[in-house]
Amino acid sequence: MSALRWGIADGWTMTRRNMAHVVRAPEEIVIYFSLPIMFVLVFGYVFGSGMAVPGGGNYREYLLPGVFVMTMLYGLGATATGVAVDVSRGVVDRFRAIDMARSALLVGRSGADLLRALLEMATLVVCGLLVGWQWRHGVGDALAAVALVLLLRLALTWVGIYLGLVVPNPDTVSVIVFPVAFPLTALSNVFVAPELMPHWLGTVSAWNPLSATVAASRELFGNPGTGGDSWVAQHPLLLSIAWPAVLIAIFAPLAVRRYQRLSR
């Protein structure tokens, strides 16, 4: 039990250390939010009147849950860059030399990213309300939707930690993340419903891990664009939990194993 308390205490210390970097560099948050806000403005106002929503409804209400999830995906880059910077500057070696739980660095990074994601979600919800988005169901359902989005972010955080541990330098992160994140977002239901795509493309979009969380959050928020005849469309809540669980089961052990190799 004492070892567990030690690990939690050291993990919280590293969480506060990582959050301090965010506070000292607020310009990073401004730059980071610029992309999803731009998508809201461009797709919501410029193209919104010409975008179709299955079953009808306001396109901005359809769009915002997708923007929430898209922001979590692009947060993968910030995670990987932060880890890669620590490795390249020898921070990992310095912390390893002191009397600190070995798990503290990874736990602290995931904890800080989750807190940062909560801050991002709060900001995006406020922005959404300002442009006319709202949730139609109760507060409990809305909080459940936010929890599912944060669960996906937690899973993507472990993907980012692993990526940050394997890249040769921090500059490589953006070269990898954007070419993967952009098509992953495009081939999802973030902007367009799978029913409106060609059949094979709609199938790919429906099984996209992002689409599961987007569809589940739309259902819980009471926003338009939910439903469908396929098994995937009828079980978004199940898949929105299953996909993050699979990602964590794969990338958390990979990240721990890679970190242990760095420790030798």
TrEMBL record:
<dbReference type="Pfam" id="PF01061">
    <property type="entry name" value="ABC2_membrane"/>
</dbReference>
<feature type="transmembrane region" description="Helical">
    <location>
        <begin position="237"/>
        <end position="256"/>
    </location>
</feature>
<protein>
    <recommendedName>
        <fullName>Transport permease protein</fullName>
    </recommendedName>
</protein>
<keyword id="KW-0813">Transport</keyword>
<dbReference type="InterPro" id="IPR051784">
    <property type="entry name" value="Nod_factor_ABC_transporter"/>
</dbReference>
<keyword id="KW-0046">Antibiotic resistance</keyword>
<keyword id="KW-0812">Transmembrane</keyword>
<comment type="similarity">
    <text>Belongs to the ABC-2 integral membrane protein family.</text>
</comment>
<feature type="transmembrane region" description="Helical">
    <location>
        <begin position="29"/>
        <end position="47"/>
    </location>
</feature>
<dbReference type="InterPro" id="IPR013525">
    <property type="entry name" value="ABC2_TM"/>
</dbReference>
<feature type="domain" description="ABC transmembrane type-2">
    <location>
        <begin position="27"/>
        <end position="262"/>
    </location>
</feature>
<keyword id="KW-1003">Cell membrane</keyword>
<dbReference type="InterPro" id="IPR047817">
    <property type="entry name" value="ABC2_TM_bact-type"/>
</dbReference>
<dbReference type="InterPro" id="IPR000412">
    <property type="entry name" value="ABC_2_transport"/>
</dbReference>
<feature type="transmembrane region" description="Helical">
    <location>
        <begin position="67"/>
        <end position="92"/>
    </location>
</feature>
<feature type="transmembrane region" description="Helical">
    <location>
        <begin position="172"/>
        <end position="192"/>
    </location>
</feature>
<keyword id="KW-0472">Membrane</keyword>
<feature type="transmembrane region" description="Helical">
    <location>
        <begin position="142"/>
        <end position="165"/>
    </location>
</feature>
<feature type="transmembrane region" description="Helical">
    <location>
        <begin position="113"/>
        <end position="136"/>
    </location>
</feature>
<keyword id="KW-1133">Transmembrane helix</keyword>
